Amino acid sequence: MDPMFSPPLHVQRHQFVIDFVKRNKPQKVVDLGCSECSLLKKLKFHREIELLVGVDINGAQLKRKMHGLAPISTYYLQPTYDQLRIELYQGSVTQKDVRLRGFDLVTSIELIEHLTLADVDRFSEVVFGYMTPVAVIVSTPNSEFNPLFPGLSGFRHSDHKFEWTRAEFKSWALKVCLEYGYEVEFTGVGQAPPGQQERVGFCSQIGVFHRLGGRDVYNMLLGDDAEDVFSYTLLYSINYPSLRDNNILRRVLVSEVLYWAEKLKKRWIEAGELQTGERDDTYTPCQTEGRGEECLRASERCMEMEEKQTAACGAEMENPVEQCGRGVSEDKEREDEKLFWTNVQGQQESCKLHRYVSVPLAVLWSRCPKICALSGNLSNLRHFLMEAPEVKLSQDGWAVLVQDHDLEEEDHNYLEDSGYAEASQCSHSAEQEEAWGTNV
């Protein structure tokens, strides 16, 4: 039957739901009779949804299809502040379950025609009377359209218990509205051929129900004394990675801090080499250990230059992981060089502590909008990094210490050139011979 329609009829039904979600932005959505989870797989990309639930009586089919709802690797590599939890339940839509109460949207796409008329009444009571969602979308075949299908006799599917005319569907829908306090609008998908739309209507007729009084009445109904019934079996549950999870937020923030600290270290050292003409390893360490306030004052000029950017970073960074690229303009990097390498006599603000370069947190926070957006303020940034073992902080906790591997390599080369390494090896060999002789 679908080849008559472009796009196919099932795609049009799903697109109708997706368009509704885009307009109304429901946070909690349940698809009754989710079957192969094809609608859920499309809805999971609409991140305004925080809880997405599927229910079907065929548990074996759910188990075969549920893994297609798992997060793809991109969600772990670039998590956002959006939250999404997906749950799949095995159960009948004629049974109550307290976990499905109070949703923003319930969808029932081509489901009720598979129920007996007695079960349709129970379905109405469960969905509209017990679950009390803000909105319900119900689609079902329109039997008046059936004569347009060549060779079709009887119902469109062997499992259908009935197929309603437009008048029959309207009668049921208005009865539901009267009993449970909803209003309904009628529409559909699957246009009839030109000149026949008025006579036969849509191929799939759709009723969109809205609770009278909206969320106010809906919240009041949730406070009643309805019994807590657990009729469904939970088969699948997964939380998508989100920056609202402190563990994930810390991982992303630490990764960004380590990247920028290393980049700034290299830039400042290169700038120092260019100004002196050679690498000078006699810089006196800046006394920032235990003096975080001085480190902050040293970066005030940098922060003033970034005041406008910093003030607006939170509003601009809806998705900081995606929007903040790992690149700072050359002009800004040159400004850093001027700020942190003032002369060749050891007066630079960027501090070399033994074999570490000290990068103040205030500089990191002001230089990268991503770090600014993720941490919110300097105190939060410091708090997150103090709990991250992979980050080495100064004793006062207001600077990141980045190891200078070039210095270590030069020290190693110096030892080799001085002959100390050979002497050490000879001494070690002599000790081994003496020990061997003793043992013999």
Rg result = 33 Å
| Strand and helix order | HEHEHHEEHEHEHEHEHHHHHHEEHHHEHH
Number of helices: 19
Number of domains: 2
Helix content: 40-55%
How does this structure look, described?
It is elongated, with a radius of gyration of 33 Å. Strand 9 and strand 10 form a beta hairpin. It has 19 helices and eleven strands. An eight-stranded mixed beta sheet has the order 6-7-5-4-1-2-3-8, sandwiched between helices. Strands 9-10-11 form a three-stranded antiparallel beta sheet. The longest helix is centred in the middle third of the chain and has 31 residues, at 246-276. It folds into two domains: 2-239, 3-Layer(aba) Sandwich (Rossmann fold), CATH 3.40.50; 246-403, no CATH class. 32% of the residues are buried. With 440 residues, the chain is an alpha/beta fold. Helix 15 (361-367) packs across helix 16 (369-375).
How would the blueprint of this fold be written?
Elements: H1 9-24, E1 28-32, H2 38-43, E2 51-56, H3 59-65, H4 73-77, E3 85-90, E4 105-109, H5 117-131, E5 135-141, H6 166-180, E6 182-189, H7 197-200, E7 204-211, H8 214-222, E8 233-239, H9 246-276, H10 292-298, H11 300-305, H12 307-316, H13 320-323, H14 330-340, E9 351-353, E10 356-360, H15 361-367, H16 369-375, H17 378-386, E11 399-403, H18 405-418, H19 420-439
Helix pairs in contact: 9-14, 9-16, 12-16, 15-16, 16-17
What characteristics describe this protein?
about 450 residues, alpha/beta, Rossmann fold, 2 domains, eight-stranded mixed β-sheet, three-stranded antiparallel β-sheet, disordered C terminus
